[in-house]
Amino acid sequence: MEKPALEYLHPGLRPYVKPCLPFIIGGASGCVATMCIQPIDMVKVRIQLAGAAGQKQPAPFALFKHLLKTEGICKMYKGIDAAFARQLLYTTTRLGLFRSISDHIKKKNDITTLPFYQKCAVGLFSGAVGAFIGNPADLALLRMQSDNSLPVEQRKNYGGIISTIVRISRNEGIFSLWKGASPTVTRAMALNVAMLATYDQSKEVLTPYVTSKTGVTVLSSAISGWFATVASLPFDYVKTCMQKQNHGASQYSGVIDCFVKNYRQGGIMRFYGSINAYYLRIAPHVVITLIMREYLESILMPSR
């Protein structure tokens, strides 16, 4: 006999908790993945900042070794509170909305799977909403990660996420917290479609041929991680360039200006200079997030 969902809760609470589960599961999965890949994210940001400054972009493993030696493992986790805040805002929203909307459409139309174009549409929408909500935490994270790469006299010496957001708001205005929101939202839309739509599609294709459920999950998440990397990296590069700018020291007048200037300086490969580090950051994050989501759903939503 199938175990009823949320049987450990009072029956009166279940109707209120159940709609929240996709969001809780999404945020928790994102936080676990972030804890694992935060040092790789630091390497990715430093490579992108070097490219934006016109410097030679270092090799990921050489840079990781250098940062570990000169700054230590603790510095590699600088901004982890902002990274968690971003996951709780961004990933909670995008994964929660994607699962909730997908389930609603399937229930309404009495179908078991969504057509691929509908998966893409839901992915675009949920990614855009999540990115807009999470942009302040994303901006704070990037400022904290890039601070140590500046000359000592130019460093802001940011503290935690709250103090960083307060300082940015006070010095640059409250709306500056959404600096780089346009490429952030575009990146999230590209990443979400590539990650979630291709993941669900890959699972449907692989399930008849792979007997292990875990194997299907791992293979599908690895495929979606590759597509997410290629689709979102150019937007991630522009986002990094835009968000690192401090008030009064803007190098770019806008997103288009940033894209055009970087393209003229290095061509399309300028945006893919950090692809190795970015893939090492995105692919494990996608794999861990999706595996954790499947695991938590099997525990908390067994009747889904």
TrEMBL record:
The Solcar repeats are found at 17-104, 114-205, 212-299
Membrane topology term reads: Multi-pass membrane protein
Q: Which UniProt keywords apply?
A: Membrane, Mitochondrion, Mitochondrion inner membrane, Repeat, Transmembrane, Transmembrane helix, Transport
InterPro entries of this UniProt entry?
MCP, MCP_dom_sf, MCP_transmembrane, Mito_Metabolite_Transporter
Q: Which GO terms describe its biological process?
A: transmembrane transport
Family recorded in the similarity comment = Belongs to the mitochondrial carrier (TC 2.A.29) family.
Q: Where in the cell is it found?
A: Mitochondrion inner membrane
Q: Which SUPFAM superfamilies match?
A: Mitochondrial carrier (SSF103506)
What is this protein's name?
Mitochondrial carrier domain containing protein
Q: Name one GO cellular component term.
A: mitochondrial inner membrane
